[in-house]
Write a sequence for this structure.
């Protein structure tokens, strides 16, 4: 690793999240001496890149630190000799997301950015690009770490780890959000909470929750059963059924609602779609407003409105992870890594989301063993769906895609699976050239 | 094993299936010298026991063989020193089945005898009884084999194998039905077909199909994709979607429709319930007719009408299995046994349905290893449901039951799961004394 | 498979075992219509090939069957379109074996044809040749079965299965010898005995022994503890220590003596080497006598003297296995196949020796699960040695070879391992071109 | 955990190691407020207990801290309400150790305190006592942590974890000694070194060695191959064979010499036994001198001579571990814990030695997955020996003991195993009442 000055390449640098990322590097500069940040985007994202890139430059200027922000459309220039490559790109932009949400709804199936057929479509578009990026890294920055936050983060990370040997760690803000949620419910500060996580990205359970090291899972569950709950910005916040949450005996993640309360979630989604629009449509407006804000030449900090965007803590988690690697911190982070026997109920070569000791050599999961049967089955069937999705995305395998969607718990039949798949392929034709 | 005359005890001897069982023993008498058959039933089944028992006596008499049919309400007398105990009882009779079918339908969920909440309810009622029977066997006939065909056969067998050390083998007519179906599709005789089976009872896949030892899976799939199909008497017979069956690349079992075509199956069930009645209601009439036939003192053979009943080949499979054990045949039978690593993707101590070499020491599965991800996930989530069901049934564990139903692929939410569970407990209160 | 006439290619056709093979095919002709047998050997074996080949021709002639014996030095001609390729070749002939035996003895280590450093040396010589043969098969007879009896049979088979996709089954006469031994001890005929086998080639345990299907393991062990024992022609026949055999509670194979009685076996070997010569030297004389016999133009049957050779039943086991495949017999044979989870305590991709159901599609092991800790550790350490041996042989990897020998239970230190390895490489330089 | 003042109970408090333990607690007092230390011993150890106990009191007095040293022969008083129970007792004292060393030597087998038959004998004596202690803990201090350093530490810990549910962590100074050794070889300070450990107690490999987070394994191996080595006080320090250490490619532990250089180690031991005496005899003198020193009323610090004793860092490692638990440090320690799938090549319920994150809830291993075949086999066979040893010790199972010794790589035959076992049972009769 470069000793005098770290180089960061951020793919999808025109994202609205970028100010948080920049803020994160500024905050940590003392121990994490970032010298160059390359924000790279594609032609279609040029305008956004310029807007957010200029804000980033103003933020750095204000900090007085020796950090250089580079804006570029040349991905290879950005990646060359980078120490860390972070990804926050979105193939097809928000319009593709909106289509991902609407196609399943047409068939009375939940349409969500990362869960179910929506996430499947996003994976098909994203995986070829991530593999391209890995090719670049292999050639131009073979020692670089790839910190992926592009969704569906677990599936995309699995593709990178299965098909390349780029050092990749997948990241998501759900675990940190659950820590924050548990802290809220227990009315304590976040840093006193630790959670044992086991599962997959957007399907992770907090199997034990600790306050100052003491197991408080039962108390937390009692409070959740009493109606206190926690959620992400973009997931409906109705309370968990009391007996259910007690029988579960652990902390679900917000995305679990799609599985444990599929009927209600579908109803809500349909109502939203007819009134305020799908989440993608809502976000599109939020983004428009954000970029208006970002344009303000007097703005030189991350604006508080960004918090509404839904991905809060995402970029901060990335900076913190990069810091732990760079400084060999041996800290515990909850990230997406190769299973390799950590959870005995899943194959070795798949990606899981779990607590890891992070040091200069990467993220090392602490052992889990077998998980209880009550969470095992759901985790396994969704993982099988994910494996088939990766296969379909990499090989352009129609049959694998059809099986992936058919076995997904949210899809009611092979006929519906086929209809959705055909619509996805039709609608995303320009991005899905792997399918002949 | 008794060398001069085998003793069979058949629990639920008043079942309409009994004539097939008797026929099976008569046919095999030369190599399987059955001396005593105890047909045992409970007080409520006394009338049926007498009707079918008398038919059995007439059948034996006609055969001229030295077999004694005993009718009794004393289970322990029947079990004492038995060589084989077979089970075909139905706790709560057909009325309980009808209730099992109707409760889920009330919540827009598939209501089926063995699959989903209906099978769950049946397991709750049946498992305490099978464990009682195992107690009797342990005490009165410790060397006896328990051949279980009481449904849900895999779950009931798992309970027996997890909680007792009675030598138990679970049996189902689905595999033989699939062999028969494949033979029909390929237009050959059944004995030329061999199928590699992997999965769970009523969720078993034919991973390879052989004709005279040659792999003909692809040809078979092509024909199935063209619309030829196969099914059981009690499962709707619409054809499989062509691309789906090709992408699966193996032979599904009829009960797979509940998972792969949930939406259509639910619609059909609802229509049936409103018109001809649920399957249980239909069967109730079939049975009534059958017993009228059985009463005919001139009848001394298994009447052909029994084939309509749905359980065809069931009893014949049992006789054939008993024969293989008794005569140390080392034949291959498809039965339900402890996994013990046969399928590496399932826990060791659960029950699977697979090909086994059967000899005097029981059923020894041929090794499978890992199964493809396309069938793995569904198999795993259903197995997790089954394990929780066994736990709930044995311990009277409400929470385990709630989790079992919630994770079942056919149940759309924890709220619906709770409603169904509460209805089941309420409706079956007299049988479910394990729940306080 | 050719329906009108099977073609067999026997590599190492000049072996003294060939008459048994021919006899085996003659005996089974009715159900196994062998048409062409190609006996192939190398230039150095030409004389023996002619002698034994002519005997084979006389045997066939006497039988009056329509079998053609072909003698050739052209391996590819032999393999082309063969249905079965059997191997019984010996790279370096008996002189190499004698060197394999003598090198370890020089360092006070057991020197044995297949066990320990002697077997290691033989594997280094043999594996490159078997991979060459597999290349030929792939190209010239892609549907052929490779029936390997070349020693060390398990290791050689593992190399073929790991590095090629030729359909390979490894064979050894030890299991059939153990059945014969158990029958002798119990004083019954062999066909009434069945043994559950688990382990590796030349390290296989009879975990249960059955007489007419009844478990008689305990009785057998009692008799073995009383001094009755069993052994192979080429392994010393002193009795097992009584408490030891009882504590083992299962039937060891003759080669277990090298591990369980290393000290005594070494003493005996050293004494033999100084008096009658090593086993290889003895065999060399036996062979010389045999070939003198074979030359007799009046001889047209397998001479009884062959039984002394040590490999009795070897070729018969091969014919029987070929018959089971050809006729889709679904019979149980004890052979060497890929583990694939059969024994949960060994890796999936290694070769084990165990009971398999043999049909047209190969040998399918019956499931074993975990083995008891008393046999597990030895099985595992020897398997690790075998894996390293395969790696060393294929890649010419000196370090893998050094580790293989160091961890072998019969080698007392890394220094001795290095000395033996260096001597082996020096002595076998002409055969070990994979080592640079 | 008691918030105002920790209670420690040290079983075998009269050990010569106690001053290091006391020093460790004094050093850490600021963050680890120990209030009461109960040094408990048995009648035969009373004199030593008084000597070392009084030294402990003087050490505490000198520190001026509010720590109370209690000397007692009443183990239950010591354990009652303890927060941590540490063990450093030696059943049969050094005389038993000397006998453990001499019995194997009589049969030309390595006689070592913890490795081979010597360790086996020690396990037989120690395990019944540790289970008794666990009983006391269960009853009198159910929340206490048992920190076991009594040897053979891995085996004793395995017994505690298999047969009780006392929260037990096994400790050894070998890993810290290897860190120290690597630092010496690389000529850097210890705190810059981190090692990935995998294996069993006294059979642990350093699979990777890091300097400031960078992988320096290769450099270290090069230096070790050049003759630099590392060792413990009580293990012969001849250099590793160069090619061997390179082919291993990882750092062996000092006890590996018994396996990788058995012949040389045996020679050395025999020479020592005839000249200076066995290690036990040497230690007996060292101890005598130490206790003379300890008696000195002017001594109020740990004397430097203790370092010669061989167990250096042992007690310090214990204090550090206790501190990490008490203060929920999430630090990495190398300890003995239940495998639970950490190393996929060993059973779940056995004890391994590996890196763990230590917090208030115990020691959580970081995941390892499969280990390379070159270390796998030896690890597995020794683990099988350990499992049989635990079984033999707990059940008094002669046959399990005979198998344990027979499969141990250092024992050349079942006959020698039996002789050694019989001698051990005879010699230790008073301690081994579990054997009838």
């Amino acid at each position: 690793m470069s000793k005098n000055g770290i180089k960061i390449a951020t793919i999808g640098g025109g994202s609205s999240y970028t100010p948080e990322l920049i803020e994160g590097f500024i905050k940590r500069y003392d121990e994490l001496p970032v010298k160059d940040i390359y924000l790279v985007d594609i032609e279609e994202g040029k305008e956004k890149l310029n807007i957010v890139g200029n804000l980033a430059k103003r933020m750095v200027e204000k900090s007085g630190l020796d950090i250089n922000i580079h804006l570029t459309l040349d991905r290879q220039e950005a990646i060359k000799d980078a120490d860390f490559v972070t990804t926050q790109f979105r193939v097809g932009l928000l319009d593709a997301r909106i289509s991902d949400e609407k196609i399943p709804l047409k068939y009375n199936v939940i349409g969500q950015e990362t869960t179910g057929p929506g996430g499947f479509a996003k994976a098909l578009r994203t995986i070829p690009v991530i593999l391209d990026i890995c090719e670049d890294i292999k050639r131009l920055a073979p020692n670089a770490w790839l910190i992926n936050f592009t969704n569906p983060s677990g599936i995309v990370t699995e593709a990178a780890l299965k098909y390349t040997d780029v050092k990749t760690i997948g990241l998501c803000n759900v675990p940190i959000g659950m820590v924050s949620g548990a802290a809220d419910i227990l009315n304590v500060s976040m840093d006193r909470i630790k959670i044992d996580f086991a599962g997959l990205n957007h399907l992770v359970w907090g199997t034990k929750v600790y306050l100052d090291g003491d197991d408080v899972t039962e108390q937390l569950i009692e409070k959740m059963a009493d109606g206190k709950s926690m959620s992400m910005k973009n997931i409906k916040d109705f309370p968990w059924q009391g007996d259910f949450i007690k029988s579960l005996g652990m902390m679900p993640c917000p995305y679990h609602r799609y599985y444990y309360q599929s009927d209600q979630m579908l109803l809500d989604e349909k109502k939203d779609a007819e009134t305020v629009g799908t989440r993608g449509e809502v976000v599109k407006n939020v983004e428009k407003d954000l970029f208006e804000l970002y344009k303000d030449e007097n703005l030189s900090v991350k604006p508080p409105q960004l918090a509404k965007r839904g991905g809060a803590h995402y970029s901060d988690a990335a900076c913190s992870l990069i810091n732990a690697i760079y400084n060999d911190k041996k800290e515990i982070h909850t990230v997406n890594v190769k299973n390799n026997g950590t959870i005995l109920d899943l194959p070795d070569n798949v990606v899981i989301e779990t607590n890891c000791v992070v040091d200069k050599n990467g993220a090392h999961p602490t052992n889990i063993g077998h998980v209880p049967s009550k969470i095992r089955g759901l985790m396994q069937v969704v993982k099988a769906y994910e494996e088939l999705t990766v296969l379909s995305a990499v090989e352009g395998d129609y049959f694998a895609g059809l099986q992936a969607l058919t076995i997904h718990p949210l899809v009611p039949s092979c006929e519906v699976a086929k209809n959705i798949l055909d619509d996805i392929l039709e609608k995303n034709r320009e991005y899905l050239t792997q399918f002949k």
Residues 307 and 313 of chain C are 9 Å apart (CA to CA).
